[in-house]
Amino acid sequence: MKHLNQLRLLKKHSSERRLAAEEWKKPWQTLIATALSARTKDSTTISIANDLFKKYSTIEKLSKAKINDIEKIIRKINYYRTKSRNIINCAKILLKEYKGKVPLDFNELVKLPGVGRKTANVFLSEMGDDAIGIDTHIAYVSQKLKWTKSSKPEIIEQDLKKLFPKEHWSSLNPIVVKFGQTYTNRKKKDEILEKIKNIQ
Fold first, then answer.
1. In degrees rounded to 5, what are phi and psi of residue 199?
2. Stretch 106-130: mean pLDDT, rounded?
3. Which runs of consecutive H residues, i.e. helices, occur in 129-185?
């Protein structure tokens, strides 16, 4: 299948790098780091999330944190004031409603403060679920490779789910994001995507 070959080539053209949602020990850390990464570089997010989790090693500690203390730690993250409120409130709700465990259900996840569709899907895919998180990288590549005609995340998600077998859903976001982060030069990225688009 052409699109599976294209996905393999995207992976081949990418450098191995850690993404913000990857390699955390606890699910709540994965969720918080993923939420923090919105509109912020993954390398910045990982470094700051490490500092955050060093100080607040449990979800209980995070739920009792003072907003000023969180703001100081995550100041280099975009929208840090809003995100500081969200992660404290998210921790409180997880403790109160879910006994400190992160729900593995999309509809429950998007009820949490600071957790939108993309964050929920990226989190679920990290937890081994079949989900596709749509961000700017995957939207751009999907349009360039004619996987979708839409620019709306929900429609792109549905188009990709129709195009790719379920077992590939959770790998789509990390492969495409790593490709996007490897080629920050738009011209170079487009040249490679043009070659990938034309393979059979």
1. -75, 155
2. 97
3. 136-144, 153-163, 169-182
d(CA 94, CA 100): 5
Round to whole Å and give the CA distance between 128 and 134: 17
What is the identity of the amino acid at 137? H
Residue 86 has pLDDT above 90, yes or no: yes
Confidence of residue 199 (pLDDT cuts 50, 70, 90): confident
Matching CATH number, 2-16+132-197, of 3.30.2020, 1.10.60, 1.10.1670, 3.40.1350? 1.10.1670
Three-class DSSP category at 96: helix
Closest by Cα among 122, 126, 147 to 134: 122
At 22, list the tokens: 């990857």
User: pTM above the 0.90 mark?
Assistant: yes
Q: Domain 27-126: which topology?
A: Endonuclease III; domain 1 (1.10.340)
Tokens 């596709």 belong to which residue?
132
